[in-house]
Amino acid sequence: MFLANVGEQQIESIYEVHPGDNFGWSQREGPFVFKAGDPSCGVFTPPADDSKYGYIYPVVAFAHNPPPGQPSCRTSGHAVVGGFVYQGGVTELRGKYLFSDFVPGRVFYADTREMHLGGKLATVYELALFTDKGQLVTMQQLAGSSRVDLRFGTDSRGELYVLSKANGKIWKVIGTTGRWRHHHDDRRVNFEVS
Questions:
Q1: Are 92 and 152 in contact (CB under 8 A)?
Q2: pLDDT grade, residue 182 (50/70/90)?
Q3: Same domain as 100, residue 38
Q4: Do the Cβ atoms of 12 and 101 come closer than 8 Å?
Q5: Structural domains of the chain, count
Q6: Which residues contact residue 154 at a Cβ distance below 8 angstroms, ignoring those fewer than 6 apart?
């Protein structure tokens, strides 16, 4: 089971969950030390003896930054929204855990083969969105708002849907484009919504 966790200050995380796990959320933010009340709102490297605490760290983590010109403690409004491991008919997406940066509606994925405890953090890829006519779009354009409040859903066949709380619309993922790219140096991957 994968669980998305909205960070306190800077780090968004996804965990592989097992019975009895302790994610250290009152002292840890993702793979870093979190100090409640710290005026810098920073996160810090864990101590050398960190293993004694028995914390379980995320399999995916990414940072968000405050809006330009704002102090570091100003929240950026970004939050990870967990999605699903895709099980539908689009071959290129099968076995990928799709998730989003909730507010702007940016869609990402990580390969579930990389998302296991004890390993390094999985690579995060961003998905470029296209309409069924092949037009490049953003969720903000589709939702008609800079605050998308994106959600995911699936049907009984494992097909994926994305929806926006901003306008209440639902889009079905219908396939990948001919421009499908999957390289570690190119984090944009394309798929179509209808």
A1: no
A2: very low
A3: no
A4: yes
A5: 2
A6: 84, 87, 88, 160, 161
E strand or H helix at 5: strand 2-5
Cα 117 from Cα 18, distance rounded (Å):
10
The residue type found at 146 is S
Instruction: Summarize pLDDT for 137-164 with one digit per residue, the tens.
Output: 999 999 999 999 999 999 999 999 999 9
| Residue 17, domain extent | 2-63
Q: Regarding predicted confidence, which is higher, 186 or 37?
A: 37
Strands of 20-159, DSSP E: 28-29, 32-34, 43-44, 60-63, 80-85, 96-101, 106-111, 125-130, 136-137, 150-154
Closest CA to 6 of 67, 108, 85, 76: 76
